[in-house]
Design goal:
The chain has 166 residues and is mainly alpha-helical. The protein is built from two helices and two strands. The protein has a domain of 70 residues.
């Protein structure tokens, strides 16, 4: 909103113009020869309001826009706060789930290492028990004796085939 005087679409009649004469003997210069007073605002250059309208002259009327309602920033602030809080909550949720996954991964690695140790111990034990000296000792403990002849069994004919003696 500016404080500049309102401009009229048509010129104001000379009778309605305020008098700007300084001396009674001098005539007023024409509008074309008057110096420009655009930048200067004086009380003499402003049109004066009339209390009673002059017959035959209509007052200048124009439509005035309704003043804009002041918008509140509270809903926008709540929206921004909600976005920030939800983003932080999402980051916290993802971080928590990743930490839980890391603990599970660590537990599984420990379990795999324990299973590898057990397997290595069982393989070592199996190799010790399958050694020829150990097999001979265990057979003697069970009461077995060395065979004098070797033989093979044919399952199709159910016949014992002897290969000879030692």
């Amino acid at each position: 909103m500016s404080a500049a005087p309102a401009r009229h679409p048509r010129p104001i009649s000379p009778a309605a113009r305020p008098s700007t004469r300084t001396a009674p003997n001098r005539a007023q210069p024409s509008a074309r020869t008057q110096p420009s007073t655009r930048g200067k605002v004086s009380s003499a250059a402003q049109p004066q309001r009339r209390a009673v309208p002059t017959p035959g002259v209509r007052p200048h009327l124009r439509a005035v826009a309704a003043p804009e309602q002041a918008r509140s920033l509270v809903p926008f602030a709540w929206l921004c706060a909600l976005i920030v809080i939800s983003a932080l909550g999402a980051v916290l949720l993802v971080n928590t789930s990743m930490a839980g996954g890391a603990y599970q991964r660590r537990d599984l690695k420990i379990e795999i290492a324990n299973l590898h140790e057990q397997r290595a111990a069982l393989v070592t034990k199996l190799e010790q028990k399958s050694a020829p000296e150990r097999l001979g000792y265990d057979a003697r403990v069970l009461g077995m004796r060395p065979a004098k002849q070797f033989g093979f069994i044919s399952l199709a004919d159910t016949v014992v085939i002897e290969s000879g003696s030692k």
